[in-house]
Design goal:
Layout lengths: L11 E2 L2 E3 L4 E3 L4 H4 L4 H5 L3 E10 L6 E8 L2 H9 L5 E2 L14 H4 L7 E4 L2 E6 L2 E7 L4 H15 L9 H4 L4 E2 L3 E11 L2 H7 L15 E9 L8 E7 L3 H18 L11 E6 L2 E8 L2 E8 L2 H17 L3
Antiparallel strand pairs: 1-2, 2-4, 3-4, 4-5, 5-9, 6-7, 7-8, 8-9, 10-11, 11-12, 12-13, 13-16, 14-15, 15-16
């Protein structure tokens, strides 16, 4: 079992009092603790979990789950699976239910904490936390918020992963990144929950890889089907080359191409659900799906390739 950490959680907050504990859950026990969601956390290099329970009035319990991850990027990945909820400010002295600061709200930076329906989700350094009240009331919301501040207190405000920051904000004049549809991941199981390609691991994803999956749409029309851009980084150039080869061999015939799968590192072509293409540069790989036409697909790959080449190895 992993070693217990020492966050400075209060013994009581409002009318809620912390029960004895915490319960510690390691990778081997994660499936006993939660039914069906363990793979998600293991896919983000989960180390261990602390569970704290706060008993309150009228059987209104607050549950605190603190997931300790290998890196801040993994913690970001867990939050990026769902950007729903209201951004909140967990700074010292910030009042409960305060929206994210104007600086964050007016920038492209993703929020570090989100609240909705009694649930607060946050990332801070290499931890991801969920604080949830069984009944949402004004008092329980204030308590949840106070516990979130206690978790984040004195911890680093880690930036977004470099791969997420590399996503082009625009493609051409009209197509814009949907910042609420950006997911950082390492596992093909997580990818399939965001954008399904196949039940097989077509892109050889795993703990040593990283990927961002993003949706792009026209500025003024969110009704249309969004194009998808995937950016991946592998441990080395050989791994990226093998991943692209694996993808070509399995995915393209499955889509019943009218010609043989392209053999190079850059290609754009039509399939049943629009235009797709790929581009490999060094240990990085970009793939676009469901682009409206050939020129748009090429533009996606050209912009993505420039962004990947600008990243430090």
């Amino acid at each position: 079992m992993a070693e217990k950490t020492s966050l400075n959680l209060p013994q009581s907050v409002g009318a809620w009092t912390r029960a004895s504990g915490p319960r510690l859950v390691g990778p081997r026990e994660i499936f006993d603790y939660m039914d069906g969601a363990g793979e998600l956390y293991l896919g983000y290099r989960f180390k261990f979990l602390e569970v704290h329970r706060y008993d309150g009035p009228d059987q209104n319990e607050i549950l605190v789950e603190i997931y300790w991850m290998e890196t801040p990027e993994d913690a970001y990945g867990l939050l990026s699976g769902d950007w729903g909820g209201e951004p909140v400010d967990l700074g010292a002295g910030a009042p409960a239910l305060q929206a994210a600061s104007a600086a964050t709200a007016g920038s492209s930076e993703r929020p570090r904490a989100l609240y909705g329906a009694g649930l607060l989700r946050l990332r801070s350094g290499n931890l991801f936390a969920r604080v949830m009240a069984t009944q949402e009331t004004a008092a329980s919301t204030n308590a949840v918020y106070a516990l979130g501040r206690a978790i984040a207190a004195g911890r680093p405000a880690s930036p977004e992963p470099a791969l997420a920051l590399a996503l082009p904000g625009r493609i051409g004049a009209r197509v814009k990144l949907r910042r609420d549809r950006v997911t950082y991941l390492r596992s093909h199981l997580v990818l399939n929950s965001v954008y399904f390609l196949s039940s097989a691991n077509l892109l050889d994803l795993g703990p040593g890889c990283e990927m961002v999956a993003a949706a792009y749409g026209a500025d003024r029309d969110k009704r249309g089907k969004p194009a998808r851009l995937l950016l991946a980084r592998y441990p080395d150039e050989r791994a990226a080359e093998e991943a692209l080869k694996h993808f070509r061999n399995l995915y393209l015939p499955e889509k019943r191409q009218t010609k043989a799968a392209p053999a190079g590192s850059f290609a754009v072509f039509a399939i049943e659900d629009g235009w797709m293409g790929f581009s490999r540069t060094g240990r990085s790989l970009a793939l676009v799906f469901e682009a409206g036409d050939e020129s748009t697909a090429r533009l996606f790959l050209e912009e993505a390739t420039r962004a990947l080449q600008a990243m430090k190895e």
